Automatic annotation (TrEMBL):
One of the protein's GO biological processes: transmembrane transport
Protein name: Lipopolysaccharide export system permease protein LptF
Family label: Belongs to the LptF/LptG family.
Job of this protein: Part of the ABC transporter complex LptBFG involved in the translocation of lipopolysaccharide (LPS) from the inner membrane to the outer membrane.
The UniProt record lists the keyword ATP-binding: no
Length: 374
């Protein structure tokens, strides 16, 4: 029982460290992209952390198998490099016992990964689409940033506001350039009407149409055709900045609940459902590969087989991606799916285990003797 807890603790501790490091790298990369979108006015600043949080389930589901694979390699690699495993074998701990202990943690990791890929990730993707739709619908209201020229949602005007009161969403010192209709022959930006107002506010109607109401301002317009320049003072001025409510966009397959994917067995939904199952399965299958690959000589160090192991994991992932693309295009039958890739890696794992065990070495030696006798 002491050995059991020791092996589990070493692998779990290393897996957690690897997971946190990789997650930090990916989240930092996502954070930079979201900040870039926010700085350009694509999303409101107060939703930056929301978008980052919604990416965590998807990232966690993909990183957990990799972190477990690396955790096994690093933990057992250190134990082998420091001759601890030699002592354990001398005490009666077999290779198969190490595999069984690791499989327990592999099943736990697979369950957690399945929760992310099968349930949490689609829910987060759906909520992300809802937030994006809301941002698009409120583009005239919430995305206006003080001190920046911005195009309205209907692309018919450019707005600049000097200051924004977040309490009641009112604007101060508002400049608006109403652009000419692109369908109008010989339309020119010179024909634009310029509006300056002391205050402004966006009002949204029930239909989703949004208007910018300007107060206490002046409208300037240059009429080239009639060679006239007009200057009109106003108390209230209405400008339409959003034509209609944004239609509900077609959701990507990543946002569809897993239960609905099985009800609609098209090539795309079949590929997506098998893709979600692939990550939990990888936690179990790669356990059979990682344990024998972690066997290193003390002279090699714990990183002795890290490069070939990573190449093997990358090949496994790339094969899954390629076959998934084939299922979506119809070149790979749905009933075959990703299963051949899993089967090949599973056979590879068993062959590595048998090769490393005493019975496997005896079997290999017996075959060599028979060939020599022949």
């Amino acid at each position: 029982m002491i050995i059991f807890r020791y092996l589990l603790k070493e692998v779990a501790k290393t897996q957690l460290a690897v997971f946190l490091v990789i997650m930090t790298i990916f989240i930092s990369n996502k954070f930079v992209r979201v900040l870039d979108d926010a700085s350009e006015g694509g999303i409101p600043g107060h939703l930056v952390m929301t978008f980052i949080g919604l990416k965590i389930p998807d990232l966690a589901g993909m990183i957990l198998p990799l972190s477990f694979f690396l955790g096994v390699l690093l933990a057992y690699g250190r134990i082998y490099a420091e001759n601890e495993m030699t002592v354990l074998h001398a005490c009666g701990v077999s290779e198969w016992y190490v595999v069984r202990v690791t499989l327990i943690l592999g099943f736990v990791t697979a369950i957690i990964t399945g929760i992310f890929t099968l349930y949490l990730s689609p829910m987060a993707a759906e909520y992300e689409y809802q937030v994006k739709d809301q941002i698009a619908a409120d583009s005239g209201l919430s995305s206006l940033i003080a001190g920046r020229f911005q195009t309205t949602g209907n692309k018919k005007a450019v707005v600049f506001i000097h200051d924004k009161n977040r309490a009641d969403n009112t604007f101060e010192k508002v400049f608006v350039a109403q652009l000419p209709d692109e369908k109008t022959p010989n339309a020119s930006v010179i024909d634009s009407s310029l509006v300056y107002a002391a205050t402004g506010q966006v009002v949204e109607e029930e239909t989703g149409l949004q208007r910018l109401i300007l107060s206490a301002g002046t409208r300037y317009q240059n009429d080239i055709k009639n060679k006239e320049f007009r200057q009109v003072a106003f108390d209230k001025y209405y400008i339409q900045i959003q034509d209609q409510k944004v239609a509900h966009k077609r959701r990507k397959l990543s946002a569809i609940p897993t239960s609905e994917l099985y009800q609609d067995q098209t090539p795309e939904t079949s590929a997506e459902s098998q893709w979600r199952i692939a990550f939990p399965l990888a936690c179990i299958i790669m356990t059979l590969v990682a344990v024998p690959l972690s066997v290193v000589n003390p002279r090699q160090g714990k990183f002795g087989k890290m490069l070939p192991a990573l190449l093997l994991f990358l090949s496994y992932f790339l094969l899954l991606t390629a076959v998934r693309s084939g299922i979506e295009k119809g070149s790979v039958p749905q009933y075959i799916g990703l299963w051949p890739v899993h089967f090949v890696v599973l056979v590879l794992g068993f062959s590595l285990l048998v090769k490393g065990r005493t019975s496997g070495r005896k079997f290999k030696a017996k075959i060599a003797i028979n060939k020599g006798a022949a």
